[in-house]
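Note to self: keep these together.
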Amino acid sequence: MSKQITTLSFYRFHSLKGKLWGFFNVPITQMKLKSIQGLRFYKVMGSGKSGFNPLPDWSTYAILQVWDSEEAANDFYQGKGVYFDYVKNSDELMVVYMKNIKAHGEWSKQKPFQKSSKIDADSKYMAVLTRATIKWTELIPFWKYVPQSQEYLKRTKAIMFQYGIGEVPFKNMATFSIWNDKDALFEFAYKDSSHAKAIELTRKRDWYSEELFSRFQPYRIVGNWKDKPELN
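Structure:
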């Protein structure tokens, strides 16, 4: 059990100037985060277009950060450094605070998420992060199957927020979603036929060279993001 928390922040830029700032600050931010105290793991990522689309959305970027404690995260978000630069330059932003429930797999050969010691058993909300490195030889069959595997996600009303993000377009991809109904999430994970077929194909074709799956309990969401999900 751990005091660790994870934050995932999203930043959207409307103007061309803002989009250029976001694009060129990906490697700069990655370097600056190396010196942040209490930060154990981080990824600065771009995003895909609406839905789980591999084509880049040059207006939106995301930063995943794993903290030793909530205090370390608060110091970062209340300071005048990296986060303040994004506040000044972005038009919309959102920070999701989460506690890890369960994780398996690796990201960049690391296991970044530790199970939290403070899970609220009464909370109905759950967030899911999946990430994979797709083998070069499997890119075409993988992306060809994606639309079929997403059918349930288009139908359900249980998803409050979802986004496709990643370090490298097409190849290093992640999905993030927030659900207001744990039962609907489990139905998708264990009963939906299209999702089951995707898992079967993943194992059969060996699509990934690395993969990770993690469930979180989101407990705080802040920012001025349009259609920001609210946790009651």
